[in-house]
Structure formats: structure tokens, C-alpha cells
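Key idea: predict the complex, not the pieces.
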Amino acid sequence: MKKVLLSGNEAVARGAWEHGVSIATAYPGTPSTEILQNIALYDEIYAEWATNEKVAFDTAVGAAYAGKRTLVAMKHVGLNVASEVLFYSSYTGIDAGLVVITADDPGMHSSQNEQDNRRYAKFAKVPMLEPADSQEAKEFVGLCLELSEQFDTPVLLRMTTRTSHSKAAVTLGERQEIEQHPYKKDASKRAMIPLYARRRHVIIEERTTQLRQWAEETDINRVEMDDTSLGIITAGIAYQYAKDIFPNASFLKLGMAWPMPEKRIRDFANSVDRLIVIEELEPFIEEKVKQLGIKVEGKTIFPITGEFTPEVVRTSAINYALGVLSPLDAADSLGSMGSSIGVAMGGSLAGIENKKNIAIIGDGTFFHSGLSALASAVYNQVPVTIIVVDNRTTGMTGHQGHPGTGKTLQGNKHEEVSIANVAKALGVHHVYEVDARNLKKMEQTIRQAINLDEPVVVVAQTVCVFVSSHNREAYKIILENCNGCTLCFRIGCPAISKSEERDQKTDRPKAWIDPVMCTGCGLCLDVCARQAIEEGEVKS
Amino acid sequence: MKKTNFFVVGVGGQGTLLASNIIAETGLYIGLDAKKSEVHGMAQRGGIVTSHIRWDEHVASPLCEPGTVDYFIAQEMLEGMRWIHFLKPGGTVIISHQHLPPTSTVLGSVVYPSDEEIMTKLKEWTDNILMIDAAGIANKLGNLRVSNSILIGALSSVMDVSPEDWLAVLTSRVPARHKEINRQAFLAGRAGK
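Result:
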């Protein structure tokens, strides 16, 4: 059998392909993004970017109702956006298998919180599996689909940044074609009016009891008995760390995060002297064990915050919002996707003396969850300036398409949705489109906008440097003109740094532009007051 | 081969992920289990990328503990100094003599350390330090982006794995038109010049 190195996300994509998934949908979000990007490479699967996680999940539910095996993927906070769909689809059940990937981010490598989505499984009464490496990730996708069909429920698969992005050896299999399930109209099952929903709730409770029985029997929950002086209950990536650190201990490894096998937990607890739980983030397993009346230690030993690693402390600080930090210092607050417009409206309504309220939102996020907030601003005529930073891609997550890019996940082209036209259609009277690299024009437009007493939209346009490089070679510093004034340093360009040379009068280091890092955007030219920057030549 | 831990650190845009993929794939290629893990949240340009690779008969954790790394590969001087605590005392350091000052040093609030300071710090951990002018060699070869292959060549010179195995994996991971230059880069790195 052929073994290849796959990341957890690549393995999930492979698992979807091998287990007969036909439809896959997602909204990009680190650490989940590569799942759909890899699925899109398989001809047998239709894959698309939806405009947000709720749309993605609704689409997936529809496809599963219609009888095709379906996958939907999102990051942990994406499930907040889509949570209503999780709750109703738990009640209605599905027809063909539906696996819902939630990629949690312990340590917040690229997120605003580190919520533990195992809580969602219990809350919405939906089973959840949790792999510990790429091989399990691939197999568990298949198991989720089987469970989904057997128990008539969507099934959650919980990835984390570490399992999603680590590479490990995976044995590959072949694709298994699954026939489309025939569709049968059944409003009492799928239309959740109170009368029908009350009946469904009873069925959901019975389903959980049956799933708990399945958890007692499945071999993805497994006991590895060794030295019985220490017993460890663990799951996911924490299992791998625990195996390295306590190689002789006995283990109960839970591949199923919810529901948990009560009898097996009791039996395991009874066979060891001391019981501990090692789990990232919330004391989810620990609470269950304690609820069973079993003495156990967990969060008194291991932290509830941050990502687990074998090392004690990781000092790498990767910040979600580059703009909040020096050198740009551009933002006062950052909440969640699309919330900037609403927060700015609230700030405007409450009023802060001598302050104007500006919302900054990306083009991808504008389509994700900015539209309804903008409509609300128009409806209530709240004076806010909304700057849509339009770089023609979803840059944060690695350049995915959206309605404004006119290019789908699998490469089809269509008309680009114009942000300016959408704003006008929603009733915004003042809509400006400005080249983001034209510093003077941009400043002038924003000054004008913030003094208007109604909502204003400024679309700041420039193509992301990673999507299309500018048509110029690297810029250069003209050393004899530069006096080390530092103005160009303050634009925060990664290509500009101090040179060895110093200005004779001021003894300040002059600037230097790294030719590998410079993309030729020309912004530095605008800020330099001494004509000390030479424009790169136009590329042939 | 017994358990081997690697650590690669670089700055976004230097190809840290490609280098670490090649190391992990080579482990698998010579018949071992291998795992690799890194953080690449917002490291597209200028951010720090660290990558852990582990080879063994069976690998559990994809991350190395500090003080356990056998081969520490730094693509940049300052980052080499910042992450050296991962090295096992007496382990091997392969470091590219390149300086990419982070924004905080450009704005003047922090000073980029001198080569002497960096070397003093590295020597607290080991005497096995191989410094290589990867960027200079790459420049001579005519493509700045082959620094990675040069570093892997340097790594191969201190490890007991045949250069053919390294090259088989390395040349399968780069586009066809860049195979030859990467092969030359590997050999240059292996020769140390």
C-alpha cells in the first residue's frame, strides 16, 4: 500500500474523495482553508466557496437532503455564523451523509478567540469525531459519513490547527462511488414548525442514547493498557504529546468526542490507580468523568488556555490584526468578521467627542457579512464612513475567490459583483472608488467622507501583491537624496529597512529597499519628501 | 537510523515550508515514519515560520520539545539566535549568513544584534556550527530562490543519508525547469561553497 505525507487538511480532502462525497462547500478560514482547495482538485466532487459559513452549511444540508454525500468545512468561529443551521439540521436529520468540519484554533494562531467547539456537539446533540493525525483524519471522514447515514444526523469532525497543518504518513485508498439516495418529500421531518419539532426532539434524544451505545463499542475509542499506576484519558493531538511524555502510562484514547462511552470510562477508571485527563482548551472530557462521580485531575494540572505543545512556553506572537499593531496603529478595535460596520454605527450613535467613526472591512468580508450591516446603516441613516479595502481576493486566508473576483473555486469565470454598485443599490448616496496607492487622493476622499452626515462608502482598490505583482521592478533608494527621515519606514513595508549608510548631518541610517521583497507597488514614492526613491523600471 | 529531530526557522518568503517538506519526505523515502508541523498563519511575507520535523520508526508528536533537536537549520541569523533553545546541547546548527531585519528594528525601537553576539549565543549550545553564505552562493548560481537547496545540501554533508536519496526527493519537489539549478545548489551546499 502506498504511503504519502499529507497534512490533516489534505487527508480530510482525500477522505471525502475516497468515501464518495459529491458536493463540498466552505467559507475559507485558517486553519480549515486547504480542505476545500484540495477537494477542488478532484473531478468527481463539485466544490465551491460560499459567501459565508451559514450559506455554505445551508447549501450542504440541501445537497444532503437531495441524497448526495456532502462535506462542509469552516473554522471554529465560522460555526458561530452557521450555528443556526447546525441546530435545525440536527432536528431534521439528513438523507445522504453530511460531515461538518470544524477546525478549531487552540493558541489562536489566526483567530480572535479559542472557543472549544466540542461544546457545540453536546449543545446541538450532534455526534463528533476527533482525529489525532492525518491517517485518522482521512478514515474519520468516512466514519462520519457512515454514522451520519446510520443515525440520520449531520456529524461533526473536529480538526485543530495542529492536526490540520501537520503532515504525517497516510495510506491511500480508492474512491468508493455512492449512489444518490432517492428524494422523498417529508415535511413532518424537514419542516420544523413547532408541532413537528416537538416530535423530532424526542427522536433526537433517542438518537443520542443509541449513539452513546455506539461509542461503547467502536474501536476508535480504544484502551491501551500498560502501567496501571497512571491512567490517561485523552483525545486529538494531545494524545500524541501524552504518548511521548508518558510512554508507559495506560491510555483511554477517545476518537469520538461526543457522546462519550460512560461504561468504558468507568471500567478504565477502575483499572488504574490515578486518573488524569489531558485535553486542549475546555475541561470537556473532565466534566463528563466528574459527572460520573469519578475522581480525576485535569485542568488543575494542564492549562485551559492556549495550544498544547511539548514545550512549556511558545513566544511566537502572530497577531490576527496586523493593522492594530505598530507601525500602522490603524485600528481601535477588532471583533469578528463583518462586525466593523455595526460597531462603528454604535460608536457613532453613542458619540465620542471630536471623533469620527470609520469602519474598515475587506472585500471578502463585505460579501461575507457586511451587506446586512450596510443596509442597516442606510436604513437608520447613521453617519459612518465605511472603507472597503478591496484587494480583489480573500487575502488573509491565502487568496480565495469571492463574488467580487468573478472566479470560482474550480476556475469558472463570471461577471464580477461590483462593491460600488451594490452600495449604491442599497441606497448609499456617496460612494467613492479610489486607487489605494494614490495616497493624496485617498486622504482627501476620507476627509471629505467623514464630514458627511450620512453613511459613506469608500472602496479602496488595489490588487493584492500576491495575486498579481505590480508591473514594475524593485524600487531603489537614491542614497545622496535620503537623509534617514524614517517617513518611508512608517508605512510598514516589509521590503524597506535601514541601510549601513548614515546621513552625515543627522547621523541617522538611510533607507534600503530589499530587491527580493519589493513588489513594485510604489507607495513609498508617495511618502518620500526628498525624491530619494527611484521608481522601478516597467517590466518587459 | 535512530530518532532524529529537525527544526527549521526562516522568514516568510524564504521557502521554509518547502525545505521542511523535503526533509520530512526524505525520512519517508528512506523507509522511516515522519511527521512535520509548522505554523503558517500570517507568515506570507516577513513573518516568522518555524517548522518541526521528526523521523523515527514510529513518530507520535509532530512537535519537538526544546532542547531535543538534533539538526537546527536557520535561514536567517537573528531567527537562528531566537530559536536556538530548541537545539539539543551539542547538536548541529546550519545557519545561513543572511540578515532580514524585522520591522521593529527598522523603526528603531530594537537593535539587530551583531554577528558576534549571535555566534556567542549559538556557541552556548554547541560547537557544531556550520555557517554558510547561502544567499551569496545562490546569487552566483543565478537564482536567489535556491538558498533552500543549498542549506539542504549542507545538512546532507553532516548526516548519514545518501545524497542520492536527498536529491531524489528534492528534484521531485521543484518544477521541472528548476531541477538542474536545484541539483547544483544542493551539491554546492554539500561542498560548503
